[in-house]
Each structure stands twice: as C-alpha cells, then as structure tokens.
Amino acid sequence: MINEKILASLRQELNEQTAQMHWSELERFFASGSVISVAGELDLIDVGARIAADDKESVLGWMQGGLLWKVTDDEAGSWHAADTLLWTVVVKPWILVQHGRQQPPSTTQ
Question: How many domains are there within the chain?
C-alpha cells in the first residue's frame, strides 16, 4: 500500500516541475526510449507520483489498460510534423508526456 502523505508530497513536487515543451525539444529523449505517453483521461501528476513511489500495481494496470505506453513511432512522427506542444514531467529515468492536458491547478493559497 502506498503512503498517501508520500504521494501528496510527490504530487506537489511534480506539479511545480510540470511544463509544456515542443516535441522538437523531446526528440532526443524519444530516440533513447525514455519518453512515456500518458492518456488524457489520467492525471499526469498522479501518474508521475505513483511511478516515483514505485506503485507497480497502478502502473501495470494503466499499461494493461492502454493508458500508459512508450511513445510510438507513429505518435512521434505526427508530433514531429506539427512540433506539438506537450505537457511534460520528468520522473527519472522517464519523461512523461501528455497531449491536450489541462493546466494543473495552482497549489499556492
């Protein structure tokens, strides 16, 4: 079982590190196989936090459900042609990307 306090801390940290990047800035990471695509129906920050917390059950479920995958050559080609702007967050050794993600809510009060 994943500690909710740890997840909350990871979410806050990753939310502060989330940014939009053009695909052209990510292509070299794609070439090394380190770019992971996150389906739009998932929360990018939550996925990153669960990967960082080694929540294998959630990650495996998303992968089996087709919600989390290594960026495909077809995606990369399409994003290259349009130099698509993607939401990104780094969870070493991975770069998680999401197309069409809504801007994260501010965590400051």
Answer: 1
In a domain, 109, yes or no: no
> How confident is the model at residue 101, as a pLDDT?
56
The whole domain housing 14 covers 4-98
Q: How far is CA 6 from CA 15, 17, 28, 36, 96, in A?
A: 14, 17, 31, 23, 20
Residue 31 corresponds to which tokens in the numbers above? 């070439």
| CB neighbours of residue 39 within 10 Å | 15
Over residues 40-77, the pLDDT tens digits come to 999 999 999 999 999 999 999 999 999 999 999 999 99
CA–CA distance, 30 with 23 (Å, rounded to integer): 9
If you count DSSP H runs as helices and E runs as strands, how many of each does the chain have, helices first? 5, 5
Q: Domain for residue 104, yes or no? A: no
